[in-house]
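In response to the reviewer comment on reproducibility (Comment 2.3), we provide here a single inverse folding case reported in full, input and output, so that an independent group could reproduce the run without further information from us. The structure tokens appear first.
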């Protein structure tokens, strides 16, 4: 069985000697004493980098074979359940046979499994059979379609609106040539099987046909229509969806290609075949602005939640796409817009979700399609589900269950895969646990190289479409990139195509081995049009190297960039009229700019110090110095280096200073990359002043210590005056303790995209000027995992700044101390019209009433808390952001 245990299942493994060969599993002949529909239920597993495909075929004779259902590529770690309506038969003397066909992949690390196959009479539709008495006319949900017959005895006909014969319910879900139904009505004499159907014509109702029902009894609705059930639109009942009789035209429920190759899907999302069905509007026979609506069954609010979540897939592709809207309407006819998309997307089914905020009233969801200016405007919907729980925030995903990220076939070469525990890479270069649960059962997504892929091949994982941002938006995620010959991980912002050309903006880029650990990635962006986010993994030169991602989340507002050694691209607006924003000219290089590929440029050694900065080739670096530079990203590039090795001794300093920078601009951005690594790295400081004498001066930026072998990028807002100089100083902390490197200094004639004010990573013993206020034993400690692990077992296993066992953070732990309070007080900050306070916190293994609060202290007044977290938050670092606007000097408490 497909559940964990010792049961058996059928499987087909890949083979490098029989690549792409077919294997078949033929089912027994199936016959029935009843007419009509049959449902096939089975579980399948398809996992691995080289998995090819699995399909279900239906055979009534050797000349009639239909591919009913199919899947291709990796489908995740878990067994998946499929429910497939087989083509109905009208002849009980015929038998049918089903056949599974698998196409083998390249190697035996990928395979396909089948288990728990079951065929039943009737439909796969799991919606309840009931008579909904809310509407003006009664509607039947969940009844089973039968074959078309001309002479079924004991039949009667009933009208579309239930006006005939004791207000029988409307049984036809189609609008053009609707199919036939019968009902078992126990109120009629003899409990006879009877029925028929009228279809809606342009002029009047017309009898279409008669049919015999397979199962189902018309009853009064006694409970809510079901949550969490998947509606695939495969059954003629279409899950109880109704056409709106007040609109301009009707939705169609169809299979196969849409009416034009230039618009609409070529297959459904549920079965991914021409046999599968979906809901769509055909724009070819309508006028600009025409509206079609379908309405879900009525739902009763669940007792367990004040919010539900609607999920579905939609297809909007064509030169003249109009709009697709979703409304929530309560029993009192109050209607509100819950979701909307306009214009053409890519030619793929798109996942999405929206929240439904509930009152005590029953409600229904309305899908509304609005026709665009020409026939190239088909819109389709498939796989609708209403969950009895809230939606996760848009775009957030821990990959433990379904979310709105998906693989794409557009401009990529292979797929991301779901992972759990170690990957199947023989080099053991993938993670051993996920980031969310820190266990080998938790899920993440990853790529690795195999014999079918080549260096430079790429895989893209794409988000849902988001509405334009109202300002800065912050994206946070975790990545694992380990192995020699590592490839590249890119993050793109994708906006709607212009003249058929992709509009991609590279937001974040990281390459090379980043160590055998989960690391934090973060970036900020804006978009004045709708957009998607794309993770793109590009394969490197080695077979044994994996790229993994986990725990993607988004927050409103700006944020700092992580890691500092990732490449950040300042976005430029695509050519999309009329929302485009013109970009300025390329900045002219200044006398401050230097990449150190040809010496110190126009920087000078300070002769009053005790040591010198040295131009260093990355290929000649020591163990603690970087092995690649920033400019070229290779060992052939250069940077400047200050080392604690002999002849430098404790307290020695090396300084370089610039010429006078441009000063006729109100704000400029000074940027550079630094690398500080080793057990006793000293201090790196940046000054801006009129002389090279720094005695008594305060740096405008400074860092001490360093336990991560990475390059970091810094942005500092500066306003130089006529005689300003920039001075960079390195100071030795201990002999043979480590190295400090600098590369790619730039001065830009505009404000920094993100300027760090009052940054503190708590690496230095001075704790950036923060003070501890406490009484008794309960207090803040300046700690690291190395120092705290034994005494405080619930403390973090690494700091957030350096992601290191030795990195410092502030820790408070009750550890047997009775309830009390301790405070950590920042230095004083000046008045501000708008700053963002960002910090990372860790709350694990604590009591449910324990809390962390943030105050903004003005003078002696503490005021009310501006932020609060209560109780256990899991075994991970979490980010918090607080907007600050104060007209007084203040401290963070």
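Designed residues, in position order:
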């Amino acid at each position: 069985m497909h559940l964990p245990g010792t049961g058996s299942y059928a499987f087909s493994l890949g083979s490098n000697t029989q690549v792409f060969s077919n294997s078949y599993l033929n089912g027994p002949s199936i016959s029935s004493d009843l007419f009509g529909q049959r449902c096939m239920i089975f579980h399948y597993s398809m996992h691995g980098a080289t998995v090819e495909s699995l399909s279900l075929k239906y055979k009534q004779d050797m000349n009639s074979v239909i591919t009913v259902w199919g899947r291709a590529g990796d489908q995740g770690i878990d067994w998946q359940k499929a429910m497939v309506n087989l083509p109905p038969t009208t002849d009980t003397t015929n038998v049918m046979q089903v056949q599974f066909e698998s196409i083998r992949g390249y190697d035996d690390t990928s395979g396909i499994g089948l288990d728990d196959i079951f065929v039943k009479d009737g439909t796969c539709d799991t919606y309840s059979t009931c008579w909904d008495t809310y509407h003006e006319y009664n509607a039947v949900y969940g009844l089973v379609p039968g074959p078309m017959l001309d002479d079924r005895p004991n039949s009667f006909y009933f009208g579309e609106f239930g006006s005939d014969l004791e207000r029988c319910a409307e049984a036809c879900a189609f609008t053009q040539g609707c199919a036939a139904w019968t009902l078992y009505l126990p109120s009629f004499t003899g409990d006879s099987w009877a029925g028929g159907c009228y279809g809606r014509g342009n002029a009047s109702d017309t009898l279409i046909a008669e049919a015999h029902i397979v199962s189902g009894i018309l009853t009064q609705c006694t409970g809510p229509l079901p949550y969490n059930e998947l509606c695939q639109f495969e059954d003629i009942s279409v899950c109880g969806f109704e056409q709106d009789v007040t609109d301009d035209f009707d939705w169609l429920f169809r299979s196969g290609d849409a009416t034009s190759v230039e618009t609409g899907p070529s297959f459904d999302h549920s079965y991914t075949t021409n046999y599968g069905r979906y809901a769509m509007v055909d724009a070819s026979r309508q006028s600009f602005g025409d509206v079609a609506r379908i309405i879900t069954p009525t739902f009763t609010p669940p007792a367990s939640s004040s919010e539900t979540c609607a999920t579905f897939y939609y297809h909007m592709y064509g030169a003249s796409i109009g709009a697709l809207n979703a409304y929530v309407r309560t029993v009192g006819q109050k209607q509100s817009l819950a979701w909307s998309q306009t214009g053409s997307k890519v030619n793929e089914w798109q996942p999405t979700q929206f929240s439904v905020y509930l009152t005590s009233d029953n409600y229904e969801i309305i899908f509304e399609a609005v026709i665009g200016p020409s026939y190239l405007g088909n819109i389709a919907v498939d796989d609708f589900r209403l969950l009895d729980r809230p939606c996760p925030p848009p775009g957030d995903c821990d990959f433990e269950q379904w979310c709105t990220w998906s693989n794409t076939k557009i401009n990529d070469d292979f797929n991301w895969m779901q992972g759990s525990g170690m990957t199947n890479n023989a080099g053991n270069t993938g993670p051993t646990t996920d980031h969310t649960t820190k266990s080998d059962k938790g899920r993440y997504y990853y790529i690795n190289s195999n014999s079918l892929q080549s260096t430079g091949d790429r895989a893209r994982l794409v988000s849902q479409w988001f509405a334009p941002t109202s300002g800065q938006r912050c994206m946070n995620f975790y990545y694992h990139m380990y192995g020699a010959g590592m490839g590249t991980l890119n993050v793109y912002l994708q906006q709607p195509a212009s003249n058929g050309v992709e509009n991609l903006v590279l937001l974040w880029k990281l390459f090379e081995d980043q160590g055998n650990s989960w690391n934090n990635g973060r970036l900020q962006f804006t978009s004045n049009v709708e957009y998607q986010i794309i993770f793109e993994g590009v394969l490197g030169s080695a077979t044994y190297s994996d790229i993994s991602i986990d725990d993607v989340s988004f927050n409103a507002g700006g944020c700092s960039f992580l890691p500092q050694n990732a490449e950040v691209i300042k976005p430029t607006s695509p050519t999309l009229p009329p929302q485009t924003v013109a970009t300025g000219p390329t900045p002219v290089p200044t006398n401050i700019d230097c990449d150190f590929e040809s010496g110190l440029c126009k920087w000078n050694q300070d002769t009053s110090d005790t040591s010198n900065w040295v131009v260093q080739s990355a290929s000649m670096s020591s163990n603690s110095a970087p092995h690649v530079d920033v400019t070229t990203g290779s060992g052939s590039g250069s940077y400047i280096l200050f080392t604690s090795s002999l002849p430098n001794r404790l307290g020695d300093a090396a300084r370089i200073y610039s010429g006078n920078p441009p000063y006729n601009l109100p704000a400029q951005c000074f940027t550079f990359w630094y690398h500080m690594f080793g057990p006793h790295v000293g201090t790196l400081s940046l000054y801006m002043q009129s002389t090279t004498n720094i005695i008594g001066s305060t740096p405008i930026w400074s860092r001490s210590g360093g336990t991560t072998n990475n390059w970091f990028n810094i942005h500092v807002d500066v306003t130089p005056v006529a005689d300003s100089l920039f001075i960079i100083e390195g100071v030795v902390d201990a002999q043979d303790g480590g190295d400090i490197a600098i590369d790619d200094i730039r001065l830009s004639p505009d404000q920094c995209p993100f300027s760090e004010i009052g940054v503190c990573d708590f690496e230095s013993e001075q704790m950036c000027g923060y003070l501890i206020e406490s009484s008794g034993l309960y207090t803040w400690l300046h700690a690291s995992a190395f120092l705290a692990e034994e005494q405080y077992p619930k403390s973090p296993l690494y700091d957030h700044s350096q992601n290191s066992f030795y990195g410092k953070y502030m820790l408070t732990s009750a550890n047997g101390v009775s309830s009390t309070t301790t405070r950590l007080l920042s230095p004083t900050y000046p008045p501000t019209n708008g700053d963002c306070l960002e910090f990372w916190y860790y709350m694990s293994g604590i009591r449910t009433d324990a809390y962390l609060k943030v105050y903004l202290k003005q003078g002696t007044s503490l005021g009310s808390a501006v932020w609060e977290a209560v109780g256990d938050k899991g075994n991970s670092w979490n980010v918090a952001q607080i907007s600050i606007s104060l007209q007084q000097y203040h401290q963070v408490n």
